[in-house]
Design a protein that fits this description.
Structural class: alpha+beta
Helix content: 40-55%
Strand content: 15-25%
CATH topology: Arc Repressor Mutant, subunit A
Number of strands: 3
Low-confidence stretches: none
Order of helices and strands: HEHHEEH
Radius of gyration: 11 Å
Number of domains: 1
Shape: globular
Distance between the termini: 16 Å
Largest sheet: 3 strands, antiparallel
CATH architecture: Orthogonal Bundle
């Protein structure tokens, strides 16, 4: 199995912007699910696309998680 889900305290220590894979860990979803949701425009927080990479603002991720958001 992969890494355990990230805790809120752990997410708070992350840099301002993280990879979609890292955001998936915070949401306790698979990397595949994260990329599928992002491709459909259904990822629960805004996805930034730049130079072929997809990133998520940690502040957006924290706001979602603190509001009780969960996908799994």
């Amino acid at each position: 199995m992969g890494e355990p889900p990230a805790t809120l305290d752990e997410v708070r220590t992350w840099p301002a912007v993280v990879s979609l894979t890292q955001a998936a860990r915070a949401l306790n979803i698979s990397r595949t699910t994260a990329f599928t949701l992002a491709a459909r425009g259904q990822f629960p927080v805004p996805v930034l696309k730049s130079l072929g990479q997809q990133r998520v603002r940690t502040a957006d991720l924290l706001a979602y998680l603190q509001a009780g958001g969960a996908l799994s």
